[in-house]
Amino acid sequence: MIDFTLSKKQKDVQDGIRSLGKYVIRPMSLSMDRNKEVPEQFLRNFMRLAKGFRSDDVVDPSEEGAAPRERDPNKPSETNRTSAIAAEELAWADAAMLLSVPGPGLGGPPIRATGTPEQKARFFGVFKDMDKGPLKWGAYALTEPGAGSDVAGIRTSCRKEGNEWVLNGRKCYITNGARASWNVVFATVDPSLGRAGHRAFVVEKGTPGFEIGKIEDKMGLRANETAELVFEDCRVPEENLLGGEAAYVSKEGFMTAMKTFDNTRPLVAAMAVGIGRAAYEYARDFVKDNYVLSRPVPRYAAIAERLARVGRRLEAARSLVYRATYMADAGIPNAKEASMSKAAAGQAATFACIEAIEICGAHGSLATEHALLEKWFRDIKVYDIFEGTGNIQRVVISKRLMTGLKAF
Amino acid sequence: MISFEANEEQTLIQQSVADFAKSTLAPRVRQFEADRVVAADVKAGAHEMGIGLMGLPEACGGQGLGLVTSVLVEEELGAADAAASFGLPGPGAFGRAVLELGTEEQARDWLADFAAEGGETRFGAVAWSESSPCRDRAGFVTTALRSDAGYVINGKKSFVTNAHSADRFLVFAQVEAEKGWGGIGAFLVKKSAPGVVVGARHDTLGLDAADFGEVSFDNVAVTEADRLLGGADFTKATLRFFAKQSLVVAARAVGVARFAFEIAREHCDTRKAFGKPIGHFQAVAFALADRHMDVESARWLVWKAAHAWDAKLPEKEALIATAQATAHALEASMRCADECVGLHGGSGFIRDLIAEKLMRDAKQLALCTPTAEQLDQVSAALDLGIALDPALVLPTPDVQAIFT
Ligand SMILES: Cc1cc2nc3c(=O)[nH]c(=O)nc-3n(C[C@H](O)[C@H](O)[C@H](O)COP(=O)(O)OP(=O)(O)OC[C@H]3O[C@@H](n4cnc5c(N)ncnc54)[C@H](O)[C@@H]3O)c2cc1C
Ligand SMILES: Cc1cc2nc3c(=O)[nH]c(=O)nc-3n(C[C@H](O)[C@H](O)[C@H](O)COP(=O)(O)OP(=O)(O)OC[C@H]3O[C@@H](n4cnc5c(N)ncnc54)[C@H](O)[C@@H]3O)c2cc1C
After folding, report:
1. How far, in Å, CA of A353 to CA of A359, rounded?
2. How many angstroms is it from A395 CA to the middle of ligand 1?
3. How far is B325 from chain A (nearest CA, A)?
């Protein structure tokens, strides 16, 4: 049935995270941004509180590799939809905090998709005892100084020596890369082979030859760590080759590691929608409460119009997010739809953050009084860049619209 | 649970209307355009299939299906010929207005014969718009003044869809002058009533097969029984009517957008320039990617709004969803049709191809309902908590006045 209402479970997740976001996370947002850090105690509290709202459907990373959850085959999975709803709410509260939540992060999907059972147990097992022990993260390291969009152009090299792989090269802009217990690192046996030469490794913290380079100072998402990773004759045991040698015999085997974008892009899109919605609501409330020249601001039709435009672009983007996650849950190939959601959301939310400032007028740019608006404006831009830029999403879409289009 | 899957009945209906649209409407689009009317045999066929009767309650002889089914069907019609979707028989906008504003008895009296023998020749029309705003007070120029027997209507309405084909009208007029937009009323009038004069048919930019025209009322007498009171809240009922009607137009716009996108994609896939298909140039491919996003997001927003009404979600939610969906769909269809002409190059401008018609139809569609700008005022006002004024949805130059 065509339906746009949330299931009971999803409503609970949304309500729970929404109030957590409003009363617990949002009040911390500005200080975290200023201090470029999400306090550890805060993350611990958050994780404890969030547990209560976790839908059974959202995979708990620490349980990954354990016995697969029993699922009623007649009850379709809602995981992707529920995750998108949760991601929007958390990003509404604070996007940098969301990216800093302990767990496998973007490193999770490729391991889930390609990892051997042993690898899944080992690398997800790391997150088991965070309640008592230290907090832990995973990360995904693909981008290099010379190759971002052009994934086939990565130069970090790997060669087999005995039962070890030797990695050399640099990765940059890696979310949580420095603090991560392990990074999923992409390297090439031979650049001339393109993607067929790619290998993915799980490189653990402290592996000899693996060093942390620069920690970036960013426009936004300042409370979240973005790191440079340096590999100099870094020796990785062969057990850490993701999926094992067998996975690289056929090209498809490895492509599953890349296909995780089909699941992660809609989530990144959902986060963008969350930030955009934050800006929209802020501008709406500002306009409601403030009087300019003794008239209520909303009496200006042009302002109301701008507000509505922002609102409906976000709603349009959200509809594409729901569509892409619905397809993912139903097991329908969704590469095109995932990219559409990301392209639309990245743009709509950036537009929302810019417009929100303009709608509030000069006030909107006052970092002292309206620091959140200013912060969202800084945070949002990267949502049209990471996980594939807006242009790259359009490349993905175009290839699925045109016959025989390989590249531009 | 969020789901994009039509149920079995809806899929069946959508499929049969799609077949009808492709096999019966599409090949004759240019003929309907030249004749400025949908051919009688096509009207009869549509009536036989019950296309216009789906939303009509069973008590009135219809199928009593919801808005979700309507928007699925209207998209298919719009994707073949948006003009024909206005010109096919059925109670249409008139029916939606009577259902929203009238009693069950009024609905039966005025709508049941659409489903009966000869229904393919029956049309109704909603006479709301006027060619210029009332200068000395808020409200309509057209008045309905009380008389001993009921009311007497005087005035002239413009831009009335189906003005010429309709045999009955729902006329909005000023009942209490001093109350402005709060003092308007709605009346059912037969075309045969003394004093009703159907005036000039407008020559339009697009949607040639649909008729738009003027209707004058010269001392037309109506009884109290033919006044529609709109239940508990007349303004809210009127707004609901406009919302649902605009959603139907939005679904047609999605159809136009989809059709324009599809033929543009097809053309870019095959037309070669500089040694390769033009779709292999990035500027062209990215434009198509953006229009694809337009089509799909517009469709999902329209579905979402239709579902909000069918699921009886809070009215505010349904109204905002409708305003957003319609504004987005109207603009998206214009962007798609515009791009479709552009990507066809010179041939897009020539009438041998359908592209130029789609562009004209898209623009015309956007003016057949509250415009995107007006709808944005509606959703903003609702979200800001500003009191809603019926003038918000009034398709006259007066609209912006309430904000100043
Ligand atoms: C805060 C932050 C966090 C990040 N986190 C991670 C992470 O965790 N892991 C990771 O691996 N990476 C991460 N990245 C890197 C990010 O994914 C890349 O920056 C992004 O993919 C773009 O690559 P690039 O910076 O090399 O830009 P380039 O690829 O050099 O692109 C520059 C411009 O050219 C355009 N362009 C490139 N190719 C084409 C084409 N074929 N057609 C049209 N236009 C094109 C792009 O759209 C862009 O506008 C992060 C980046 C930031 C800023
Ligand atoms: C009313 C009218 C009057 C005209 N008068 C004259 C006249 O007097 N004399 C005359 O010689 N011609 C005339 N023309 C023809 C006109 O100049 C051509 O139609 C125009 O140059 C476009 O060429 P085309 O139709 O072959 O489109 P195409 O070249 O097929 O282009 C189709 C689409 O692909 C795009 N495209 C093509 N190549 C690329 C590329 N490399 N990168 C990105 N996008 C690309 C185009 O922008 C366009 O959107 C007239 C056309 C019209 C409609």
Report:
1. 10
2. 13
3. 8
Query: Which among B68, B301, B383 is the nearest to A2, CB-wise?
Result: B68
Residue where one domain finishes, among candidates A226, A242, A257: A257
CA–CA gap between residue B379 and residue A305 (Å, rounded)? 9
pLDDT at B168 over 90: yes
Compare CB distances from A394 to B279, B286, B403 and report the shortest one's residue. B286
- Confirm or reject contact between B375 and chain A (CB < 8 A): yes
Label residue B258 exposed, middle or buried (CB < 10 Å: 0-12, 13-18, 19+).
Answer: buried
Which run of H or E residues covers position A109? helix A108-114
Question: Among A75, A102, A129, where does a domain finish?
Answer: A102
Q: What is the CATH number of the domain that holds A28?
A: 1.10.540.10
Is A363 in the same domain as A272? yes
What fold, for B234-393?
Answer: Butyryl-CoA Dehydrogenase, subunit A; domain 3 (1.20.140)
Whether the predicted pLDDT of A52 surpasses 80: no
Nearest-atom number in ligand 2 for the CA of B271 is 30
How many angstroms separate the Cα of B403 from the Cα of each of A63, A230, A294, A306, B208?
57, 60, 14, 14, 34
Structural domain containing residue A218: 111-257
Give yes or no for a contact between B115 and B61, defined as CB atoms under 8 angstroms apart: yes
CB within 8 Å of B376: residues ≥ 6 apart: A304, A305, A308, A309, A312, B323, B327
Same domain for A143 and A73? no
Looking at the predicted structure, is the pLDDT value of residue B404 above 60?
no
- Give the pTM: 0.92
In angstroms, the separation between the Cα of residue B313 and the nearest Cα of chain A is 9
Burial A340-355 (b: 16+ CB within 10 A, else e): bbbbbbbbbbbbbbbb
Cα→Cα distances A114→A110, A183, A194, A255, A396, Å: 6, 15, 19, 9, 22
Say if A273 falls within a structural domain: yes
* Chain B CA closest to residue A9: B1
Superfamily of structural domain B125-228? Butyryl-CoA Dehydrogenase, subunit A, domain 2 (2.40.110.10)
What's the CATH code of the domain at A180? 2.40.110.10
**C-alpha torsion sign, points B103, B108, B110, B111:** positive
Chain-chain contact of B373 with A343 (C-beta, under 8 angstroms)? no
Q: What's the rounded mean pLDDT across residues B293-318?
A: 97
Is A2 within the bounds of a domain?
no
- B67-99 as b/e, with b when 16 or more CB fall inside 10 Å? bbbbbbbbbbbbbbbbbbbbbbbbbbbbbbbbb
**Same domain for A386 and A373?**
yes
Can you read off the two tokens belonging to residue A246? 């067998």
Q: Which CATH class is domain B8-121?
A: mainly alpha
Q: Do B324 and A397 touch (CB under 8 A)?
A: no
Beta strand pairing call for B272-273 and B276-277: antiparallel
DSSP string, A251-274: HHHHHHHHTTHHHHHHHHHHHHHH
Chain B interface includes A285 (CB < 8 A): no
**CA A151 to ligand 1 center in whole angstroms:** 9
Find out whether B335 and B254 touch, Cβ atoms under 8 Å: no
Each domain of chain B, given as residue ranges in start order, spans: 8-121, 125-228, 234-393
Question: pLDDT tens, A66-103?
Answer: 444 555 666 778 999 999 999 999 999 999 999 999 99
d(CA A103, CA B48): 61
A80 and A146 assigned to the same domain: no
